[in-house]
Design brief:
mainly alpha, Four Helix Bundle (Hemerythrin (Met), subunit A), 56% helix
Length: 179
């Protein structure tokens, strides 16, 4: 039975197996980002803190990219899909961050939610084809390939780090705090 907290986040299981624990923590981190961004208009999603140019909208778009990059491109070596396949990443390696200002809140949430849905489907496919030990098909320049276990753990770290940024950004927008 999944326990949902007061912010609508699914609590990770306290007694799950390895896969259930890893995906539980990843889903909790995903839900934390959604909570920090929920209910904001374009101005709120484009607000910055101090000298940083980071925004909540940029976080949504960046994490949509990261979801697709790891669970689609890295895990299966599939080509990037739109909008990622139209970007000259060598010329603009931060496109995902700053282009978010051109998108509506609805577009940003849809892009992120669709990426999460693809990631979940790709995770299920990879689990059926080797489990957590399954190596990514796209290898690193040194020839190593991270396992699905590594990718899941990395995604938890990616969200957790950026959710710290989201805390500060959301507080600067409307004073909302928590975790």
């Amino acid at each position: 039975m999944t326990v949902i907290d007061e912010q609508g986040r699914p609590e990770p299981p306290v007694d799950g197996d390895e896969l259930t624990t890893l995906t539980g923590f990843l889903d909790f981190q995903r839900a934390t980002l959604a909570w920090k961004c929920r209910g904001l208009d374009a101005a709120g999603l484009n607000a910055t803190v101090g000298a940083s140019t980071m925004t909540l909208g940029g976080l949504l778009k960046h994490l949509a990219y990261v979801e697709d990059d790891w669970f689609t491109r890295g895990l299966f070596d599939r080509e990037r899909s739109a909008p990622w396949n139209t970007v000259d990443w060598a010329a603009d390696h931060d496109w995902d961050w700053h282009s978010a200002a051109d998108d509506t809140p609805e577009q940003l949430f849809a892009l992120w939610e669709e990426a999460v849905d693809r990631s979940r489907a790709n995770l299920a496919e990879a689990l059926a084809d080797g489990g957590l030990d399954r190596p990514a098909r796209r290898v690193w320049p040194d020839g190593r390939a991270p396992s699905l276990r590594w990718i899941l753990t990395h995604m938890i770290e990616e969200y957790a780090r950026h959710n710290g940024h989201a805390d500060l950004l959301r507080e600067s927008v409307d004073g909302s705090t928590g975790e």
